[in-house]
Every structure is written in structure tokens, then in C-alpha cells.
Amino acid sequence: AQSVTQPDIHITVSEGASLELRCNYSYGATPYLFWYVQSPGQGLQLLLKYFSGDTLVQGIKGFEAEFKRSQSSFNLRKPSVHWSDAAEYFCAVAPRNAGNMLTFGGGTRLMVKP
Amino acid sequence: EAQVTQNPRYLITVTGKKLTVTCSQNMNHEYMSWYRQDPGLGLRQIYYSMNVEVTDKGDVPEGYKVSRKEKRNFPLILESPSPNQTSLYFCASRDSGLAESNEQFFGPGTRLTVL
User: How far is CA A48 from CA A21, A103, B28, B70, in A?
Assistant: First the structure.
């Protein structure tokens, strides 16, 4: 069955430290890949997306993600976390040419220590 | 401003009392969908619509209905709500020009509690 896994439910980092949020997917072929952020009480905002080409994708707010086909992973990174990055982060995938289903991972809640 | 709006934002109701959550987008998007968000499960798609009068089931359609009579509106209907439908609901839309590769724009969410 197709699935998206975010192994870390909660992550706490200190402000200024680096961050990596993990995402693994299970699909027959490489899907379209997305990272969304949900700030408290808000809807979801797209951080970045991967369709093809360069496997290192730059997004908004200083985030980047790297697609690794061999590992079926699409991990999100940020070199220096700010207190305003505290939020819940969702990895999502959409199969190519297979309808319109966007499948989300369970989310990772990021807390930032001062 | 391009946006997806939902109403109400918060709703507390009782089992069996029919309710409708409205969703409207002003971006002329053809594709719209509804998700529910539950802790640890992420967002799961309830229904989606490719265009006016075209709707289809997502992952968790049981207990829900939708309609798409106009391009901009996509209401979610709970004919007989039950406590297991207590959740946070999101409406989303996107341009269908490049199909599933396009970004989905999300509404602010509707927190529903069914007692």
C-alpha cells in the first residue's frame, strides 16, 4: 500500500541549531513530493515541492529538502532554526498520473527552545 | 487576495444534527477537496471534485457528502454527525492545469466537535 511516514512525532531544537525532519514514502514510482507547514491555528502553507531535476530543492523561509531516490526519502532541512519556525510540518506526496490524491504523513511537531 | 475561506471556523453540535461546512475559493480553481486532520494521522482526504458536478471519494468518505454546483463553492455535508467525526477539517483548491503537481491552497480550517 502507498504510504508516507514521518518517523518523528515531536522534535525539539535550540534556536540557532540546525534542523532535519525526516520523510519516507512508499510508492511504485517517484511521486511528486511536498512539504507543508502548519502554524498554530492556521491552515497549511507550502514550503517547497519536488517534481523532477535537481534533487536539492530550495523553499521559502530558508528551508530546503533533498530527494534521495535510493532511500525513498525527502528530508527537510534548515541550517539555523528561528523561534518562529515552531509549527507542525507535513510531508505529502501525489502519485504521477494516478489521480488527484494527495497523501500526507502524520506530521512532525517542532518546538524551538530559546 | 487569493484565498480559500471556510465557515464556520468552530462548531460544536450534537449527534444526528445535520450540518454543512462551506468552502469557497476565489482563484477560479477547478479542483477542490476536503480533508480531515486527526492527531498522528496527518490529513486524510474525504472527497474531491475535479470540476462542477464532478465529485469523487477520497480515503475516508463514510458519513460525508459533498456537492459542486458552482466552481467556487464546495460544501461538506454531514447528514447525521457522530462523535467520531470530531476533527479539524480543511478545504483546499488548486489549478488543475498541471494536475497533481500543482500546489494545493488550504483554507484556515474548521474545528468540529460532535457531542
Answer: 14, 16, 23, 30
pLDDT tens for each residue of chain B, 115 residues long? 889 999 999 999 999 999 999 999 999 998 899 999 998 888 999 999 988 999 999 989 999 999 999 999 999 999 999 999 999 999 999 887 555 556 788 999 999 999 9
Per the CB < 8 Å rule, is A32 touching B101?
yes
Q: Is A45 on the interface with B (CB under 8 A)?
A: yes
**B5 part of contact set with chain A, CB < 8 Å:** no
Give the integer Cα–Cα distance in Å for A54 and A67. 9
Provide the 3-class DSSP secondary structure of residue B49: strand
Chain A nearest-CA residue for B58:
A101
Q: What is the pLDDT of residue B99?
A: 55
Residue A107 near residue A90, CB atoms below 8 Å: yes
Best of B4, B56, B101, B110 to mutate (most A CBs within 10 Å, chain A): B101
Which residue in B95, B72, B79 sits closest to B6, CA to CA?
A: B72
Q: What's the grid cell of residue B79?
A: 447528514
> Which of A105, A38, A52 has the alpha carbon at shortest distance from A75?
A105
Nearest residue to B6 via CA among B45, B29, B30, B33: B33
The stretches in chain A having pLDDT less than 70 are 1, 97-100
Q: With CB atoms and an 8 Å threshold, state whether A101 touches B45.
A: yes
The answer to whether B10 and B110 are in contact (CB under 8 A) is yes
Q: B30: which 3 cell numbers?
A: 477547478
Cβ-defined contact of A90 to B43 (cutoff 8 Å): yes
